[in-house]
Amino acid sequence: MSSKDARGDKGASTGKRVGGNKKMSSAKLSTGSKGTGGGKKAAGRPHRGGKTKSQASSRQRTGRPSHRGASFDASALEGAEFIEVSNVALPLDAGLESPASEVNRPTPVPLSTETNHPAPVTPAASPAPAEGSHAESLSRAAIASALGVAPEDVASFSLVKRSVDARKKSNVHFNATYAVHLAQGVAYDALSPARGVNVRAYDPPAPLAIPDLRSLATSSDERIVVAGTGPAGLFCALFLAEAGLRPLVVERGAAVDERTAAIESFNAGGPLDAAANVQFGEGGAGTFSDGKLTTGTKSPHIRHVLEAFVQAGAPDEILWQAKPHIGTDKLPAVVKSIRERIISAGGEMRFLTRLADIELSGGAVRSVALEDSRTGAREVVEASRVIVACGHSARDIFELARDRGFALERKPFSMGVRIEHPQTLINRAQYGAAAKHTALGAADYKMAVRVPARANGTRTDATSENATRGVYTFCMCPGGEVVAAASEEGGVVVNGMSRFARDGENSNSALLADVRPDDLPGNDVMEGVRLQREVEHAAFELARRNGGAPYAAPAQTVGDFLSGATSSSGQAKGKQLGGTVAAASEARRRTVVPGPHRRVGAPEPHSLLVVRPSYPRGVVWCDLREFLPAFICDALAQGLPLLDAKLHGFADPGAVLTGPETRSSSPIRMVRGQNFQARLASDLPDSDEEPATRVYPCGEGAGYAGGIMSAAVDGLRVAEAIAAEFSSR
Fold first, then answer.
1. Separation CA 390–CA 641 (nearest Å)
2. Are 618 and 516 in contact (CB under 8 A)?
3. pLDDT given at position 623
4. Taking the model in full, what pTM does it have?
5. Number of C-alpha atoms within 13 angstroms, CB side, residue 219?
6. Mean per-residue pLDDT, 498-504
7. At what angle do helices 708-727 and 301-311 cross, to 10 degrees?
8. Is the pLDDT of residue 35 over 60?
9. Counts for the chain of helices (H) and strands (E), in that order
10. Which of these, 96, 109, 94, 185, lies nearest to 143 by C-alpha position?
């Protein structure tokens, strides 16, 4: 996301405060029988100077070990009721019971002041480890050691964040951050934090502020229209509805229950439903994915999105996990709950309704045409504003925006395959001997390298700024499956998903190479979409020619791909009847071709790895170079050994590549101003005047996000901008 789009929270600076508690009650913290003190600040607690009994005795008990850090300034904690202690080394056994996370729970405050608006249901709190249990004792001891005090000096604590630290395979442990309340009489001057441990006053996350704009809402004949119910559209609509602006939300795909049934039918070999598939329908493409909630975006709205998910029924552990996820099995119910919340706040939802046209008058939106996705019947709706949050696969929306004179530009995107390994291989590579510890769960990875760039088979000038190309993993799904993600007839698309438990046999990840605007011929802004379609259709036809059923996916082992073999593992030679997972897996078991990428001195000349491809429509063994662009294949072939050096076994000859993965991001951006409104192509490029189209490109499809969290955050930012416009009237 460009810096020019990084707005603050101007739109939410006024109005009622909603969300989590500003002041944390220690009654919600994990407490031990040995600790004293409670929710109130300990009377007479000396924060500076003056040895207390606890201070003297704790130092006699714990001493000042050699691992203690530099001098600690306790004055920064003056007046703090709770302290935040981060970089606490926590043994794995402490993760065998649910941690105390109640400090992080969002308060169930209704986000609208409408008379009969019901408060959201309070999410169930994660139970604290039983008082005196082994897990509770380990956590308390780790906090005490980190602070240089005795365990009984820690009155209560709650987990704020926890991650796995596997940098040393001989010492895999958790790295945790806690909100801590010390026992009465323990001075902050008594603390002696260990090296690397950070201590500061605990600052609870600020709640989301939504203004009450019901009196300023537009007439019933002139609606705010939100097109798309992916994360961007849902969170934008939720904010607007709870501000009292009664948005009309339209979704070209089906509601989540009908959508789920259509996807299950397609996976079982049924026909593709263009209106209900992995790409289109309630919740967007992310609903049938791992539900990863990680992002590089820095925004206070990240917390607000997580809280909303918990209020909608997501596990509350997403509030403290360093890499939170919800899982495909839980996401449908979560997005349905958000839909119900939008409706209860005054919004209207229409499924199987496509944004078919936008009419402008004087450069600003006047109305929209809505089309029934099944029958094609159209309805014109007067609109005061339109939020275009249609997702990266709504290619007709790009064409509509271009035809209606909006400014579009090419943007970088990526293309490649899904790479699949046994999950046990990834666990061993990441966790070593600790891989089987039940507190760890399925391991993940995220890697990136750069390789010499090639375009159309010719190496780019080494002196140019584009001399290298990025190759990286994306949307890694531990214990998951490769997904049939087609949304257009005659094209194959793959993606990945995991369930909440992440307990499947395989892991999979997108393995992608950058596609830059200058990789594409000509100047047409739609050229990236054409390349995606060309690859998807070529993959479909290649699988069919090699004996596969419709929507079977081309696949190749890493060994075959790196050695340049025309897939000796089956279909290209006609040795197997096409398309089924079982046939493909058996063919690959018999003929694994080792690649030249193995490390020098590698003990095994052939891979012993057996991967049963999980793509539900069946794979056909082919040469991936027959449908992927040469520069993509060159980059992947160069990148695989480099990635293997980062994670041993990643480029094992037996790993399976299934393609194509073409929909990782949008190839087009709808250009918008600082006020989030779309620019017209006729606008002067050097004009400082903000656009006034009242059309708001939003989320991943419009080119302003790259995943569930960043898309949801962008939806909130757009909603805040609209709310600010109403507030300024």
1. 37
2. no
3. 96
4. 0.84
5. 4
6. 94
7. 100
8. no
9. 13, 27
10. 94
Residue 566 has what pLDDT?
53
Query: What secondary structure, in 3-state letters, does 522-589 show?
Result: CCCCCHHHHHHHHHHHHHHHHHHHCCCCCCCEEEEEHHHHHHCCCCCCCHHHCCCCCCCHHHHHHHHH
pLDDT per residue as tens digits for the range 514-559? 999 999 999 999 999 999 999 999 999 999 999 999 999 999 999 9
Q: Residues 1-31: pLDDT tens digits?
A: 444 333 333 333 333 333 333 334 333 344 4
Phi (first) and psi of residue 693, to 5 degrees: -80, -20
Strand duo 695-697 + 378-388: pairing: parallel
Owner of token pair 């909630």: 293
pLDDT for res 47: 40
Q: Which residue has the tokens 């037996």?
A: 654
Residues 249, 235: Cα–Cα separation, whole Å: 11
d(CA 266, CA 280): 14
Host H or E run for residue 58: helix 53-62
CB burial string 474-503: b at 16+ within 10 A, e below: bbbbbbbbbbbbbbbeebbbbbbbbbbebe
Helix (H) or strand (E) holding 408: strand 408-410
Distances (CA, A) of 707 to 1, 98, 203, 232: 12, 28, 28, 10
With the CA atoms of 715, 721, 723 and 727 taken in that order, what torsion angle do they form, in degrees rounded to the nearest 10?
A: 170
User: Distances in Å between the alpha carbon of 719 and those of 13, 440, 652, 676, 729?
Assistant: 13, 38, 47, 10, 16
| pLDDT per residue as tens digits for the range 477-492 | 999 999 999 999 999 9
User: pLDDT tens digits, residue range 418-447?
Assistant: 999 999 999 999 999 999 999 999 999 999
**Burial of 218 from C-beta contacts in 10 A (0-12 / 13-18 / 19+):** middle
417 closest CA partner among 656, 665, 598: 656
Averaged pLDDT for residues 699-727: 95
672 contact partners, CB below 8 Å, separation of at least 6: 5, 678, 679, 691, 696, 697, 702, 704
Intra-chain end-to-end CA distance of the chain, in Å:
30
Does the structure show a pLDDT above 50 at 582? no
**Which tokens hold the place of 30?**
């994990």
The backbone torsions φ and ψ at residue 257, rounded to the nearest 5 degrees and listed phi first, read -70, -45
